[in-house]
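Hey,
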Amino acid sequence: MSATTTPFSYFPIVLQLIAAVGFVGVTMVATHYLGPKRKTSDKLVTFESGIEQIGNARQPVAIKYFLTAILFVLFDVEVIFFYPYAVNFRELGWEGFLAMLMFVTFFMGGFFYIIRKGALKWED
């Protein structure tokens, strides 16, 4: 059984792409022409998460919020690297285990560094 690739092999992918783009286009055009067009003062007011606006949006925000968000993304992305190892741990053997152990060591080292620096403390 040989794996030959011809232009016709990509036909299902192209067909699915055309169908998806066509569906999105038809839906957008249909909602534009069929949807209600009543502009009221309530609809023109700035809206965010269903919460009434209080104060000015340009006031400074504590850096702790941004730091916590960045740390969450950083550690969340690092956890993603565990999935390929979990799927292939038998094929990787001891070499893969030692590589993952080293990765976890660096991962935990960074975590303890963050805790030691007090980056996760909310009280000043």
